[in-house]
Design brief:
Layout: H1 3-6, E1 15-21, H2 25-28, E2 39-43, E3 47-51, E4 59-60, E5 71-77, E6 84-90, E7 97-99, E8 102-104, E9 109-111, E10 115-120, E11 123-130, E12 137-144, H3 149-154, H4 171-176
Parallel strand pairs: 1-12, 3-4
Antiparallel strand pairs: 1-11, 2-12, 3-5, 5-6, 6-9, 7-8, 7-10, 10-11
């Protein structure tokens, strides 16, 4: 038997992709302590904490408006299944946290949807769960957004803001043909 045949079966690792946005990032560098673009392993029995206090939080946000411990993400296995998930808990006494449209007060927690937006203060975090079988640890993969994640996610949902004329011909089409718009009676069509 070859060593390939004797090797242990590889497990896929659950990964939590987090895309961060703050409007003051350029000037204040609030994310300067985060490692973007590389995966980090977190033990399954550890809570991934986010906040200002680097002695307690694994993910440090450099901002005096952020609580010492803002929130935590805990990995868990769902009862009577092999499925895993994450729960998010608000650990800030002063700032409410929203997950999609659900508002969490201090010590409130919910299951993290497989794709959601976490907001507190001016912070926006797009969270996406990549499933895996590993039970010993999970990975985090941090990304930095250049535009608000709320805006990026909601733009396709918004209806067009341009009025559509009754005749269905766009005024920009008429202008692009070099003709100026003229007023017409609807009966002339």
């Amino acid at each position: 038997m070859s060593s390939f045949e004797e090797a242990e079966t590889e497990e896929t690792v659950p990964c939590l992709h987090l895309t961060f946005y703050h409007p003051g990032q350029e000037e204040r560098m609030v994310f300067r302590c985060l490692s973007f673009g590389k995966r980090e392993q977190v033990r399954a029995d550890d809570a991934a904490k986010f906040g200002r206090d680097s002695s307690v939080c694994r993910y440090n946000l450099v901002d005096t408006r952020v609580s010492r411990v803002q929130f935590s993400l805990q990995f868990y296995r769902k009862l009577h299944t092999s499925e895993c998930g994450f729960e998010i808990k608000n650990l800030s006494k002063k700032t409410k946290l929203t997950v999609n449209q659900t508002e969490l007060g201090y010590l409130n927690k919910i299951d993290l949807p497989w794709k959601c937006i976490i907001c507190f203060g001016d912070y926006q975090i797009l969270a996406e769960i990549q499933e895996g079988e590993c039970m010993d640890y999970f990975e985090t993969h941090l990304h930095l957004a250049e535009a608000p994640v709320l805006q990026e996610r909601c733009l396709p949902c918004l209806p067009s803001l341009k009025p559509i004329p009754e005749n269905g011909i766009s005024p920009s089409l008429i202008l692009s043909q070099g003709k100026s718009p003229t007023e017409m009676d609807e009966n002339e069509l």
